[in-house]
Amino acid sequence: MRVPVRIVGIQADTPEDDPIVMLRERMGGRVLGMWIGEQETTLLTFAMANTEIPRPFTHTTLWKAIQAAGAEVQSVCVTAQRDGIFWAEIVLDNGRHVDSRPSDALILAATCGCEITVEDAVLNAFGVVDPRGDGSAAGSSEVAGEVASVESFSEELPGDLSGEIDAFREMLDHLSMDDFLDGPEDEKN
Protein backbone atom coordinates (compact mmCIF):
# COMPACT_ATOMS: atom_id res chain seq x y z
CA MET A 1 0.00 0.00 0.00
CA ARG A 2 1.24 3.48 -0.86
CA VAL A 3 0.81 6.12 1.82
CA PRO A 4 0.35 9.79 0.79
CA VAL A 5 2.96 12.08 2.35
CA ARG A 6 4.08 15.66 2.00
CA ILE A 7 7.36 17.48 2.38
CA VAL A 8 7.38 19.21 5.77
CA GLY A 9 10.95 20.34 6.02
CA ILE A 10 14.60 20.14 5.18
CA GLN A 11 17.01 20.22 8.06
CA ALA A 12 20.63 19.69 9.04
CA ASP A 13 21.95 19.62 12.58
CA THR A 14 25.10 21.55 11.64
CA PRO A 15 26.27 23.31 8.46
CA GLU A 16 28.69 20.41 7.85
CA ASP A 17 25.88 17.81 7.88
CA ASP A 18 24.10 16.68 4.75
CA PRO A 19 20.53 17.97 4.70
CA ILE A 20 17.64 15.63 5.47
CA VAL A 21 14.31 16.05 3.71
CA MET A 22 11.40 15.21 6.00
CA LEU A 23 8.26 13.54 4.65
CA ARG A 24 5.20 13.24 6.87
CA GLU A 25 2.22 11.05 6.17
CA ARG A 26 -0.91 13.10 5.54
CA MET A 27 -3.27 11.02 7.65
CA GLY A 28 -1.03 9.81 10.46
CA GLY A 29 1.93 10.60 12.64
CA ARG A 30 4.89 8.93 10.93
CA VAL A 31 7.79 10.95 9.53
CA LEU A 32 10.46 9.67 7.15
CA GLY A 33 13.81 11.42 6.85
CA MET A 34 16.15 10.93 3.90
CA TRP A 35 19.57 12.46 3.33
CA ILE A 36 19.88 14.51 0.16
CA GLY A 37 22.78 16.46 -1.28
CA GLU A 38 23.24 20.20 -1.01
CA GLN A 39 22.55 20.74 -4.72
CA GLU A 40 19.36 18.68 -4.48
CA THR A 41 18.34 20.70 -1.42
CA THR A 42 18.75 23.93 -3.37
CA LEU A 43 16.78 22.58 -6.34
CA LEU A 44 14.01 21.28 -4.07
CA THR A 45 13.80 24.64 -2.32
CA PHE A 46 13.60 26.45 -5.68
CA ALA A 47 10.87 24.06 -6.87
CA MET A 48 8.85 24.41 -3.65
CA ALA A 49 9.09 28.20 -3.86
CA ASN A 50 8.09 28.23 -7.55
CA THR A 51 11.22 30.28 -8.22
CA GLU A 52 11.31 31.52 -11.81
CA ILE A 53 14.62 31.15 -13.61
CA PRO A 54 15.63 32.18 -17.14
CA ARG A 55 16.48 28.62 -18.28
CA PRO A 56 14.87 25.36 -17.09
CA PHE A 57 16.54 23.09 -14.57
CA THR A 58 16.81 19.37 -15.41
CA HIS A 59 13.66 18.45 -13.44
CA THR A 60 11.63 21.03 -15.38
CA THR A 61 13.02 19.70 -18.66
CA LEU A 62 12.11 16.15 -17.60
CA TRP A 63 8.56 17.21 -16.77
CA LYS A 64 8.17 19.02 -20.12
CA ALA A 65 9.63 15.98 -21.99
CA ILE A 66 7.13 13.67 -20.28
CA GLN A 67 4.31 16.00 -21.31
CA ALA A 68 5.66 16.26 -24.88
CA ALA A 69 5.56 12.45 -25.04
CA GLY A 70 1.84 12.59 -24.22
CA ALA A 71 1.95 11.62 -20.55
CA GLU A 72 1.58 13.32 -17.18
CA VAL A 73 3.32 12.64 -13.89
CA GLN A 74 0.67 11.01 -11.71
CA SER A 75 2.78 10.58 -8.57
CA VAL A 76 6.21 9.82 -7.20
CA CYS A 77 6.81 7.08 -4.63
CA VAL A 78 9.62 6.12 -2.27
CA THR A 79 9.49 2.39 -2.90
CA ALA A 80 12.31 0.73 -0.96
CA GLN A 81 15.47 1.04 1.08
CA ARG A 82 18.34 -1.28 0.25
CA ASP A 83 21.82 -1.17 1.77
CA GLY A 84 21.21 2.26 3.27
CA ILE A 85 19.93 3.77 0.02
CA PHE A 86 16.32 4.77 -0.62
CA TRP A 87 14.76 4.00 -4.00
CA ALA A 88 11.91 5.79 -5.73
CA GLU A 89 9.91 5.77 -8.91
CA ILE A 90 8.01 8.24 -11.01
CA VAL A 91 4.52 6.98 -11.87
CA LEU A 92 3.06 8.21 -15.15
CA ASP A 93 -0.64 8.35 -15.99
CA ASN A 94 -0.10 5.85 -18.83
CA GLY A 95 0.77 3.12 -16.31
CA ARG A 96 4.53 3.31 -16.81
CA HIS A 97 6.96 3.58 -13.90
CA VAL A 98 10.40 5.21 -14.13
CA ASP A 99 13.19 4.38 -11.64
CA SER A 100 14.44 7.50 -9.85
CA ARG A 101 16.53 8.74 -6.97
CA PRO A 102 14.17 9.98 -4.23
CA SER A 103 15.63 13.50 -4.32
CA ASP A 104 15.01 13.78 -8.08
CA ALA A 105 11.50 12.39 -7.69
CA LEU A 106 10.71 14.88 -4.91
CA ILE A 107 12.06 17.81 -6.94
CA LEU A 108 9.89 16.70 -9.87
CA ALA A 109 6.85 16.40 -7.58
CA ALA A 110 7.44 19.89 -6.20
CA THR A 111 7.74 21.19 -9.76
CA CYS A 112 4.60 19.60 -11.20
CA GLY A 113 2.50 19.39 -8.02
CA CYS A 114 1.85 15.66 -8.20
CA GLU A 115 1.15 13.37 -5.26
CA ILE A 116 4.05 12.04 -3.18
CA THR A 117 3.72 8.59 -1.60
CA VAL A 118 5.84 6.14 0.37
CA GLU A 119 5.37 2.39 0.48
CA ASP A 120 3.83 1.47 3.82
CA ALA A 121 6.58 -1.13 4.40
CA VAL A 122 9.21 1.64 4.07
CA LEU A 123 7.36 3.88 6.54
CA ASN A 124 6.96 0.96 8.96
CA ALA A 125 10.67 0.09 8.79
CA PHE A 126 12.27 3.55 8.60
CA GLY A 127 9.67 6.09 9.68
CA VAL A 128 9.39 7.45 13.18
CA VAL A 129 6.36 8.75 14.99
CA ASP A 130 6.33 12.55 15.09
CA PRO A 131 7.52 13.39 18.60
CA ARG A 132 5.09 16.33 18.78
CA GLY A 133 2.26 13.84 18.50
CA ASP A 134 -0.22 16.67 17.93
CA GLY A 135 -0.69 16.07 14.22
CA SER A 136 -0.03 19.75 13.51
CA ALA A 137 1.92 18.92 10.36
CA ALA A 138 -0.49 16.25 9.13
CA GLY A 139 -2.31 18.63 6.81
CA SER A 140 -5.46 16.48 6.85
CA SER A 141 -7.48 19.37 5.43
CA GLU A 142 -5.17 19.79 2.43
CA VAL A 143 -5.91 18.57 -1.07
CA ALA A 144 -4.14 15.27 -1.79
CA GLY A 145 -0.96 15.79 -3.77
CA GLU A 146 -0.41 19.39 -2.74
CA VAL A 147 3.22 20.11 -1.95
CA ALA A 148 3.88 22.32 1.05
CA SER A 149 4.95 25.78 -0.01
CA VAL A 150 7.97 27.54 1.43
CA GLU A 151 5.63 29.70 3.49
CA SER A 152 3.88 26.74 5.14
CA PHE A 153 7.21 24.95 5.27
CA SER A 154 8.69 27.58 7.60
CA GLU A 155 5.53 27.80 9.70
CA GLU A 156 5.81 24.08 10.50
CA LEU A 157 9.37 24.38 11.77
CA PRO A 158 10.18 25.09 15.37
CA GLY A 159 10.43 28.85 15.99
CA ASP A 160 14.22 28.82 16.25
CA LEU A 161 14.55 27.50 12.67
CA SER A 162 11.94 29.70 11.01
CA GLY A 163 14.38 32.66 11.13
CA GLU A 164 16.88 30.64 9.10
CA ILE A 165 14.20 29.95 6.48
CA ASP A 166 13.33 33.67 6.38
CA ALA A 167 17.03 34.50 5.85
CA PHE A 168 17.23 31.89 3.08
CA ARG A 169 14.09 33.30 1.47
CA GLU A 170 15.68 36.79 1.59
CA MET A 171 18.83 35.43 -0.07
CA LEU A 172 16.71 33.81 -2.82
CA ASP A 173 14.94 37.11 -3.47
CA HIS A 174 18.28 38.74 -4.31
CA LEU A 175 19.82 35.80 -6.20
CA SER A 176 20.52 36.06 -9.91
CA MET A 177 21.94 33.61 -12.43
CA ASP A 178 25.07 35.78 -12.61
CA ASP A 179 25.84 34.64 -9.06
CA PHE A 180 26.44 31.14 -10.46
CA LEU A 181 28.55 32.10 -13.47
CA ASP A 182 31.73 33.40 -11.87
CA GLY A 183 33.45 31.43 -9.13
CA PRO A 184 36.68 32.11 -7.25
CA GLU A 185 38.69 30.43 -10.04
CA ASP A 186 37.27 32.86 -12.63
CA GLU A 187 38.18 35.88 -10.47
CA LYS A 188 41.88 34.86 -10.46
CA ASN A 189 42.12 34.75 -14.26
Automatic annotation (TrEMBL):
<dbReference type="InterPro" id="IPR003729">
    <property type="entry name" value="Bi_nuclease_dom"/>
</dbReference>
<protein>
    <recommendedName>
        <fullName>BFN domain-containing protein</fullName>
    </recommendedName>
</protein>
<dbReference type="GO" id="GO:0004518">
    <property type="term" value="F:nuclease activity"/>
</dbReference>
<dbReference type="InterPro" id="IPR036104">
    <property type="entry name" value="BFN_sf"/>
</dbReference>
<feature type="domain" description="BFN">
    <location>
        <begin position="2"/>
        <end position="130"/>
    </location>
</feature>
<dbReference type="Pfam" id="PF02577">
    <property type="entry name" value="BFN_dom"/>
</dbReference>
